[in-house]
């Protein structure tokens, strides 16, 4: 009955139902109007995400999603030769993988509304602090992700959105507009604080609204309690649920 | 692929995806293992909830829910002759309505795990303060809900759970075990603070775990990223997704 919104991405999507998370906030915004389904896979890059497509978005689905966010790149942009190099995907392949994800989703659900989200910026000091908290003196001195490199991935993501006529959120740029973004928006140099989550929530809601997938304009699935006549409750349900 | 947990109830369920909410926390606990679907209807009592059953839980569903919480009573217990009397349902009817909800769910999904949750206690001073914040001097002096009366509904809910062999959470009693529960757990004398939400989350997780619907023991839907061989990623997906 309700349309479905799928959040597809890496750990930043997987963790989006923690307290203050953007996924939970989105579920609350679309309360009684749309269902939010989380498909976040911590540590995944776009190369590994491709293996999930036919399982998560089967082409014979009777009720494909109405809207989706695609939010990868933080892992693809891991630096070769450093701690997280196994997650690295070359930037051109990242872009082509994103394209394959979009094309598959559109094949599964031709009218789907897709919003591409770039990876957030990287606070390299924050990453180093985090590594030291894990490995102490054994931590490498060089961060495994670099802000400038992630920026190249973010640019490719926006480029693809423009080529394919999709909405997009340049989170990499957006967060850096605010002074002190490093600690204000990021908890460990990479994942989002509640304030960072609030920005993602606000941007996704804006994009959905501008695409006319607006929570305010969508009907409730069942009557508001104030519209139920307590003497004849069945009336309200006959009208809406026939 | 993933089993589904449905949260069925009134506003306390509807609001469970706000920051610090028990629904969002449950979605996070079952991350990558089960989907949480919110079916919370603010202001609804069990009489009105019955009109939703065939729509929300169609008997011919191919993928009925694996587990559910049923969390009503806060509105049923509204006092006759006071502000919210239109929501009132007599306590015996409340119990029978709950029974009908359970029986329908079991018909839809014979193996379903059901946890009944009683309404939380009522802080009458908190309700009066809330009424004054809405209506100023026009607010009635008598609270529209009374803790003692809600306690009778809670007792009926537990009674039904025992009769039907269901798990239950006596939230009405549980919250009152803590000194200062009125402000600690309730925001307006009726709805939950983040601390109150945390108690519901903890109790639901415990009940689910004891019924062997334990997040810790359930497999991930797809491999953890550390189990993906970056040279042969397809291997990890062949094993798990065949």
TrEMBL record, chains A, B:
Residue segments, region Disordered: 223-242
Amino-acid biosynthesis listed as a keyword: no
Entry annotated with the keyword Aminoacyl-tRNA synthetase: no
GO MF terms held by the record: hydrolase activity, acting on ester bonds
Transmembrane segments: none
Coiled-coil residue spans: none
GO biological process, one term: lipid catabolic process
Keywords: Hydrolase, Lipid degradation, Lipid metabolism
Basic and acidic residues composition bias: residue spans: 223-234
Recorded family membership: Belongs to the 'GDSL' lipolytic enzyme family.
UniProt protein name: SGNH hydrolase-type esterase domain-containing protein
Species of provenance: Prunus persica (Peach)
């Amino acid at each position: 009955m309700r349309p479905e919104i799928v959040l597809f991405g890496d750990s930043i999507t997987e963790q989006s139902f923690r307290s203050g998370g953007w996924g939970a906030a989105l579920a609350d915004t679309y309360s009684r109007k749309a269902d939010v389904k989380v498909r976040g896979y911590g540590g995944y890059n776009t190369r590994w995400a491709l293996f999930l497509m036919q399982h998560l978005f089967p082409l014979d689905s009777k009720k494909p999603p109405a809207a989706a966010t695609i939010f990868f790149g933080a892992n693809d942009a891991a630096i070769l030769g450093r701690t997280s190099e196994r997650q690295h995907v070359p930037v051109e392949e990242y872009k082509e993988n994103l394209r394959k994800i979009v094309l598959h989703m559109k094949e599964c659900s031709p009218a789907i509304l897709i919003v591409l989200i770039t990876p957030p910026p990287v606070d390299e000091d924050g990453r180093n602090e985090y590594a030291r908290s894990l490995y102490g003196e054994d931590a490498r001195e060089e961060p495994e992700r670099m802000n400038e490199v992630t920026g190249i991935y973010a640019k490719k993501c926006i480029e693809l959105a423009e080529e394919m006529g999709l909405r997009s959120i340049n989170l990499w740029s957006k967060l850096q507009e605010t002074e002190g973004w490093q600690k204000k928006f990021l908890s460990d140099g990479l994942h989002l604080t509640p304030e960072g989550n609030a920005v993602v929530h606000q941007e996704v809601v804006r994009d959905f609204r501008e695409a006319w997938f607006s929570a305010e304009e969508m009907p409730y699935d069942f009557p508001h309690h104030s519209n139920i006549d307590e003497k004849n409750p069945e009336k309200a349900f006959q009208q809406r649920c026939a």
